[in-house]
Amino acid sequence: MTSFAARAPVPAHADEPGLHSSASIPRHVAIIMDGNGRWAKARRLPRVAGHRQGVEAVRRITRAAREQGIEALTLYAFSSENWRRPEEEIGDLMGLLRHFLKNEIKELTREGVRLRILGNYRALKADLVELIDDAVARTATNTGPILAIALNYGAQAELVAAARRLAEKVAAGMPVSAIDEAAIDRELDTDGLPPLDLMIRTSGEQRLSNFLLWQAAYAELLFVDTLWPDFDGECLAQAIAAYGQRQRRFGGL
Ligand code: IPE
Ligand code: IPE
Ligand code: MG
């Protein structure tokens, strides 16, 4: 499995010639999908209308990412802090997630996409957990790109869980010296995903909101003003072009 410890400045796909026409296509892109509420507000619509359009953007962008040759797309759909929202909005978001899982699984399977979930999704309603487990199992043997959806995800909680598992391993006899960057990578929800190359946040906010804090160590960050429901294939292409202009030095010269 690919490890996040592989942080050397190797061009994307140096080991897999021919998969991409360009070495500047990011292998792993993460998106903080923000701005649904403001999109709705600007149209005097209820916030849920923004979330509905946000789901349309998810459909568009998962397809566009595949077409662009991105190996792994990670989408922040619900943070561990989003429980602070009104119950009604949480219900709307969970309803849209249920709908998405029921409707998109066929296309994902057909397209060979592997679905992964980051975050403590087991705390969601039982029927959602069942839908998620089923979708993940049904796509597990696919060999195409990875779609990772972060649900009830918080990077600090992810790191706490990793620390606890490592502590248990030490208690069971693992030497403390075995804890290194690669060992931590393996305990994170992103184990097996390619190193994070590009993190995009829409809607003009410039913060990480507890998303992939460890994994973003050397990711390129891109903040765009576009609200998530307006984000389309052209916006993704522009983001990839911007990434291609960045000089990644990884501490070297
Ligand atoms: C992002 O849009 C969707 C989720 C966080 C679930 P927001 O709902 O945060 O939209 P704004 O930030 O209020 O515009
Ligand atoms: C981050 O957006 C979480 C998701 C996109 C799922 P928020 O809108 O919740 O973030 P803050 O509260 O503005 O930091
Ligand atoms: Mg927001």
Task: Describe what this molecule looks like in 3D.
The structure is a single chain. The protein is of the alpha/beta class. The chain has one domain: Decaprenyl diphosphate synthase-like (Undecaprenyl pyrophosphate synthetase), CATH 3.40.1180.10. The chain is 41% helix and 13% strand. The chain is built from seven helices and six strands. A six-stranded parallel beta sheet has the order 3-4-2-1-5-6, with helices on both faces. Helix 4 links the parallel strand 3 and strand 4. Helix 1 crosses helix 2 and helix 3 runs parallel beside helix 4. The protein is globular. The two termini are 29 Å apart.
Which whole number gives the mean pLDDT? Answer: 93
What is the CATH C level class, in words? Alpha Beta
Q: Determine the fraction of residues in helical runs and give it as a percent range.
A: 40-55%
Distance from N terminus to C terminus (CA atoms, Å) equals: 29 Å
**What is the total tally of β strands?**
6
Please state how the strands of the largest beta sheet are arranged side by side. 3-4-2-1-5-6
Count structural domains: 1
Q: Could you tell me which ligands this complex binds, including any ions or cofactors?
A: 3-methylbut-3-enyl trihydrogen diphosphate, magnesium ion
What is the approximate shape? globular
CATH topology: Undecaprenyl pyrophosphate synthetase
User: Ranges with pLDDT <50 over ≥5 residues?
Assistant: 1-21
Provide the CATH architecture.
3-Layer(aba) Sandwich
Evaluate the radius of gyration: 18 Å
Spell out the helices and strands N to C. Answer: EHHEHEHEHHEEH
Strand residue percentage:
5-15%
The CATH homologous superfamily name equals Decaprenyl diphosphate synthase-like
Briefly note the structural class of the backbone.
alpha/beta
- How many H/I helical runs? 7
Largest sheet: 6 strands, parallel
